[in-house]
Amino acid sequence: MRKRYVICSILVTIAIFIFSFTNSQQKEYVAYYLNTVSTFNTQQAALLEVIIKADLNNPTEVATIKQELNNARNTLKSVDFWLRYLNPLAYKKINAPLPVEWETEVFEKFEKPYKREGAGLTLLAMYMEEGNFEKDSMLALIRASVAATSVFTADSTTKGLSEYHHFFLCNRLFLLNLAAIYTTGFECPDRERIIPELKALLQSVGNTNEMFNKSFPATPLPPKYLQLYRAMLAFVGDQPLNYTLFDHYTFLKDYVNPLFILNQALIARYNVVSRSMVDYTLNNKATSIFDKHLYNGQNTKGIFLRVNDTAALATIEHIGKQLFYDPLLSGNNRRSCASCHKPTQYFTDTAITASLHFDGVQLLPRNSPSLVNSIYNHLLMLDGKHYSLQDQTKGVVTNPNEMNCTERELLKKVMSCKEYKKTLKQLLTYTPQEKEVTFQHIASAINYYYGQFSNYNAPFDEAMNKTADISASARRGFNLFMSKAQCGACHFVPQFNGVKPPYVSSEFEVLGVPADTLYRNLSPDEGRYVINAAKETRNAFRTGSIRNAAHTKPYMHNGVFNTLEQVIEFYNTGGGAAHGLKVANQTLSADSLHLTAQEKIDIISFMQSLNEQIVFDTPPYNLPASKNKSLNNRVIGGSY
Amino acid sequence: MKQTIFLIALSGICVSALAQKHMKYEFPENMPEHIKSDYLEQCKKGKILYEINCAKCHTSSVGRKKIIPDFTSAQLINYELRIQNPKHTNNITETTVNTEELAMIITFLTYKKKN
């Protein structure tokens, strides 16, 4: 009996010991975090001090400010890993690349964008690069940053740090940003600082990794991860400091993506759970940054969301295809989805600058976009008008200039066809919340049909996943894309569209696209302004993907350019503003990129490596017969 | 006699079934009628989606009565942002309940009569 007591008390003592030990270890990690944040704050205070005292007309004193700013930016890199994840809103006061941005706080599907005045170290760096000094505004930028930093020492922010979960989620965001923005100068206006800052960042995250492993021995980063991380440090250490000479391709393929793959495996192995909106769209099951399911963009199944039965999905796809080609969807029964989104031409129309108006004579103001990969946007249409594919479908079908039908009329015509009616009624069992067939069922079937064509990979994806290789010219092109040519700072890895990590919102840009190739006038299309009127949104358009660009001419919102060469030249010169057009709010730099002829060829080779190996299918042989005989001579795919 | 008992029993079953199916809602008094009917429509769909996706874990039984819990508005906001319940990280994702459907469920839970 006594023996049992002794054993029990020993066990309890051990348990208490272990518990207090792990607890103190985790405290060490939190203390390390707080200490690093405090160093950052001290550095910001020093920067403020220098600005207050400085005589801005004295070049030596300006140089001192620059030095202090660089120090502050370097210390920011030692906390960046956590701050960006823990509170993205406060982080944007410390480090944001634009003076004014229209954004949503959480996820753009929930709320209208609001105006955010930029602040912090990136803007100060930008103003200093431009030689734009004004003491009050410089102080205001840094004071806002200091105020935002205090959020990161609050208990509400730090409480998650004593559990291991946050680490792997912070790390995921960190790796995605390494892939998409840290090497492009997205947040670093001084080009010469990009690689030095990257080095500082990698070094301090290396320290954080070690501290984490010491404090959380039950859920460590395995030796394989640490080894690869060290190899990455060595690789970057040997790289030139000029970001144009930096080997972005190897960095991403051999280090960043493999580390991401390992981290995803750890998220699964340690059952990591998120309590942060940052992870809203990220998919825990994605096996690579170049996995098309890295993040959830649009739900292509629509109302049939929970259907997983393959037979039912095949039925939905079949009927979706027929509906896609069926001119019943238009007011005059002569136009179908396929009229403007030609399935053999990457679901766009490559023969015409913009598609035909419903009247068959005029042209619409905008080029019809390829539907391939449209599902990786949260906002649809070039002005971001719609939140879901189903709403977008409704928008086009009911637009008097496009298909000119009404929801009711369409439903009536579709249900007049026995085959449609029977299938749609059968599918009702999967949508118990709807008692009758609705427009949503029809739109969802269409979306599911064409959504399938967004699942294909391009040679570049295969190269990144190490199953194939691309040409030396394409590799050079990617390196230019991410550096000198400045493409990667808006067309983000991996979809090369305007959705950047953590992939919850889209970017809109003002490029100054002309109405014609002679640059006589700016395109009159106001773009985003129509949806969200503001000085900054006039003529702004949602950044499109460059995947399959070689097959989806013509280019820009109005289809003004017919070749990739013209597009590259447009950017190389510096957009509309550089061509003498008055674009007060152009977000593209009006400076020339100074690309050489060979560099342009290389960039186009890279773009060609993003041509996806899509297997297109042929039109349906027939369309369902309607009770209304006059509808039965309609043309498959529409007549114009 | 047998028939009467049968009828009474049948009507009893019907009434109880109706009582279970008939959910009561509480909308703000000054809400215009047409908006109220829109919301009611959303609530009805939200209830069905709740039964499919949430009820298994969240609805409790007291005797024969099923009780759908009363969530606070703070909880509902966090459910909508998908940060309320860590178990949902893998179980309830965009691919099982999408943003639009989640909004209907939240609407239902917001306006259903409190227990």
- Give the overall shape of chain B: globular
Per CATH, which architecture of the largest domain in chain A? Up-down Bundle
* Main sheet characteristics of chain A: 2 strands, antiparallel
Biggest interchain interface, per-side counts: A-B, 23 and 23 residues
Q: So what's the CATH class of the largest domain in chain A?
A: Mainly Alpha
| Low-confidence residue ranges of chain A | none
The Rg value of chain A, from CA coordinates, equals 27 Å
Distance between the termini of chain A: 93 Å
Query: Structural class, from helix and strand content of chain A?
Result: mainly alpha
At the fourth CATH level, what is the homologous superfamily of the largest domain in chain A?
M75 peptidase, HXXE motif
Share in β-strands of chain A: under 5%
Number of domains of chain B: 1
What is the radius of gyration of chain B? 17 Å
Averaging pLDDT over every residue of chain A, what do you get? 93
What's the gist of this structure?
The complex is a heterodimer of chains A (640) and B (115). By secondary structure, chain A is mainly alpha-helical.
Explain what this protein looks like in three dimensions:
The complex is a heterodimer of chains A (640) and B (115). Chain A has 640 residues and is mainly alpha-helical. Chain A has 3 domains: 24-279, A middle domain of Talin 1 (Up-down Bundle); 303-456 and 616-633, Orthogonal Bundle (Cytochrome Bc1 Complex, Chain D, domain 2); 459-608, Cytochrome c-like domain (Cytochrome Bc1 Complex, Chain D, domain 2), CATH 1.10.760. Chain A is 46% helix and 2% strand. Chain A is built from 21 helices and 4 strands. In chain A, the strands form 2 sheets. A two-stranded antiparallel ribbon of chain A has the order 1-2. A two-stranded antiparallel ribbon of chain A has the order 3-4. In chain A, helix 2 (59-86) crosses helix 7 (165-180), helix 11 (310-324) packs across helix 16 (439-451) and helix 13 packs across helix 16. The longest helix of chain A has 52 residues, at 2-53. Chain A is globular, with a radius of gyration of 27 Å. Chain B is mainly alpha-helical. Helix content of chain B is 61%, strand content 5%. Chain B has helices at 2-21, 33-53, 55-58, 73-80, 88-91, 99-111; strands at residues 60-62, 65-67. In chain B, strands 1-2 form a two-stranded antiparallel ribbon. Chain B is globular, with a radius of gyration of 17 Å. Residues 12-20 of chain B have low confidence and may be disordered. At the A-B interface, loops of A face helix 2 and helix 6 of B.
